[in-house]
Amino acid sequence: MKWESRKEEIGREIVRSLYDNKMILTWCRDNPEGWKLASGKWSPFYINLRELPAFPALLKKVGSGLAELVKSEIPDGDLLVGLAMAGIPIATAISIEGMIPSAFTRKVEGEIGDFDSVIKQYGKHSLVEGRLEEGKNVILVDDLVSYFTSKTQGIKIVEYEARRRNLSNLAVKDILVLLDREQGGKEEAKSAGVSLHSMIPFKSKGIHWLKDDFSKVEYEIITRYLDNPEDYQDEKVQRELMAVVR
Question: SS3 for 209?
Fold first, then answer.
């Protein structure tokens, strides 16, 4: 089986498990009031992959699938760095399933800033835990991508640690996520000089893989929202959607 067909088979299976285990939530099934996102926008669905380690069999499947992706799409990637916090268990699962060395970043609160000050908070004085070695091609690993801010910070952290450890030939070339909401992350990655890889491109494929699992109204509304989120920011429209499930 060609990789693209195999990738779609894996992605379809995983996204349905995420929905079944309520890591993909909808206003219709889970919360009639919907969600206010970090961007300030209202959404009829919410994706929370931080609960993935609560489902070991699914996490193993994710690790195995993403290890195949690395082998097929990033064959020169030889060090995984999980981004705190949600990317760490995923990177570990890939590492075990694919026998690829891994490390992880420390949590850095707020905007990208003075890492020299932040690093003093940690006992070993390192923002990346694990072995960083000369010549390694780093794959940053996270759960999903909406906007690119946290990924930019991850790149800066690895670059900072490479300079601090006098590693002149250690590079971040790729970012790997389980799910891409397809809100401009791929374009921002390109602008940052890295490639973005995902198992589940949610807007173009993932939502359609869930068509048979969603109710008719769930599928219609979320598909429309992904195309035009601004159409759903009016409180009257949101109240109408709430009324559908009350």
Answer: helix
CATH code assigned at 23: 3.40.50.2020
Give me the amino acid identity at 56.
Answer: P
Q: What is the CA radius of gyration of the chain?
A: 19
- Residue pLDDT tens, the chain, 246 long: 899 999 999 999 999 999 999 999 999 999 999 999 988 999 999 999 999 999 999 999 999 999 999 999 999 999 999 999 999 999 999 999 999 999 999 888 755 556 666 665 655 568 899 999 999 999 999 999 988 888 999 999 999 999 989 999 999 999 999 999 999 999 999 999 999 999 999 999 999 999 999 999 999 999 999 999 999 999 999 999 999 887
What residue numbers bound the domain in which 212 lies? 3-244
| Overall domain count for the chain | 1
